[in-house]
Structure formats: structure tokens, C-alpha cells
Write a structure and sequence with these properties.
Keywords: DNA-binding, Transcription, Transcription regulation. The chain is about 40% helix and about 25% strand. With about 230 residues, it is an alpha+beta fold. The protein has two domains: about 5-145, Jelly Rolls, CATH 2.60.120; about 155-225, Arc Repressor Mutant, subunit A. α6 (about 175-185) crosses α7.
Length: about 230
């Protein structure tokens, strides 16, 4: 279960680290609560009523959607700083979640009741711009995923590693490979094969969950011949 941490100093550290005072009014800040969930725990379940807006300030969350036949798709792997629940925030109906969100590492989360968002945030242009900015980033990321649907597995993995390397540097700490494979729309076997091929080409070195990029230019330069 989620635990109340009751660590005001830690919460203030997160508020300062992510400059939340620039986007949240004092009334909103007063209603923030700090929670912690363990690896494997669920933050929200698909189809459940959303009662809070969540801010991921440490750790990693996986956003996934389950089909009726039991299959699932990974929409994203969220790292700090990330907003969860913004997509449902403006729906003019009861706000039921469209995805399941679970922790893939121990995570710290700031949460605020939606009733307080409605009371103090819906008429606050600074807060609304903050939400719109994060929605725009998610729309851009989902568009990127859609453009990758028809690409070969080799190109998908190269593009993924190139994006991760640009954001994180040459040493990348991967999540579970089945999660990454589901995110890219390929099988775990295909992912492992591409990683092995890239290692044999001396483009990367990898061991367990750690990938070291040796040739970032190769990863980012996609040629026409790569599609065949």
C-alpha cells in the first residue's frame, strides 16, 4: 500500500528542485501530500475513478493499457519530473483513468486532490499553462511513437537508444526489457537480438540493465537502407 511519508523537509526539497512555487499557488502547495510506492505497486488502475493529480518527483512509473484479451501496450515509462492524471483533468464527465500506472522502481510522488485543483487551479492561468505544457509534451511523445509503428525493429531500437542517450548521456540504465519491447511494439526476443547486433558492431556495450553508447552518431543517423 502507499505510505504517508510525513517528511515536510523532503517535500519542500522536491518543491524547490522542480520550482513548483513558480506554477502552484500557495493554496495549491498547501494541499500537496508526499507519498511513496514500492516497485510493482499500482498508483492507479485502468478504469478507476481519479481522485488526485500526481507529480512523480523520484523513481519510475510505467503507463500501460490492458485489452480485453489480456494483452497490453506500454504507453510510456515516466521519470521525474512527470505529471500523472493531467489527461483526465479536463474531461467533462466522471474522471476515470484510461491507463494503469505502476511503479517499476521505488517512487516518490506528490499528490493533490482534484477537488483542490478545481477550487484553486481551474481559474489560475499560470497553473493551467503548466498543465498544458505537460500535455503538449505527451502529445509530442505519442506522435513520435505513432511514426515509429511501421519501422523495422532494428531502427526502432536505434532511435530509442539515441533519444535516451541524448537525454541521459552515454550510459543508459534500462528498465525491464519486456517493458521496453512493449513500448516499442516489438518482441523481447527482437529487442535482445538488436542489442546483440549493435554490440557486435561496437556501437554499444551492454551488461544486464546498463548500456554504454560507443557511437551515438550511428544510432541517430537513420539511412534509407535501414528500412529493408
Amino acid at each position: 500500500m502507499m505510505k504517508n511519508m510525513n517528511k515536510n523537509e523532503l517535500m519542500q526539497t522536491y518543491i524547490d528542485t522542480f520550482s513548483l512555487c513558480s506554477y502552484f499557488s500557495p493554496a495549491l502547495l498547501e494541499n500537496l501530500r508526499l507519498k511513496q510506492i514500492e516497485e510493482g505497486e499500482y498508483l492507479v488502475a485502468q478504469g478507476s475513478l481519479l481522485n488526485n493529480l500526481y507529480l512523480l518527483v523520484d523513481g519510475k512509473l510505467q503507463v500501460e493499457h490492458f485489452q480485453q484479451d489480456g494483452s497490453y501496450a506500454v504507453f510510456s515509462i515516466e521519470k521525474a519530473f512527470s505529471v500523472i492524471g493531467d489527461l483526465e483533468l479536463f474531461l467533462d464527465i466522471d474522471m476515470y483513468t484510461v491507463s494503469t500506472v505502476r511503479a517499476i522502481s521505488k517512487s516518490d510522488i506528490l499528490e493533490i486532490p482534484l477537488s483542490k485543483i478545481q477550487q484553486y487551479g481551474f481559474n489560475d492561468p499560470i497553473f493551467l499553462r503548466f498543465i498544458c505544457t505537460h500535455l503538449s509534451k505527451k502529445l509530442y511523445a505519442s506522435t513520435q511513437l505513432l511514426t515509429n509503428v511501421s519501422l523495422p525493429a532494428f531502427v526502432k531500437v536505434r532511435k530509442y537508444l539515441a533519444i535516451r542517450a541524448e537525454a541521459e548521456g552515454t550510459v543508459i540504465h534500462l528498465e525491464k526489457r519486456d517493458s521496453i519491447a512493449a513500448l516499442l511494439g516489438i518482441s523481447t526476443r527482437q529487442l535482445n537480438r538488436v542489442l546483440k547486433d549493435l554490440a557486435e558492431l561496437s556501437i554499444i556495450q551492454f551488461k544486464n540493465k546498463t548500456v554504454q553508447v560507443l557511437d551515438s552518431d550511428y544510432l541517430s543517423e537513420i539511412k534509407a537502407t535501414d528500412f529493408f
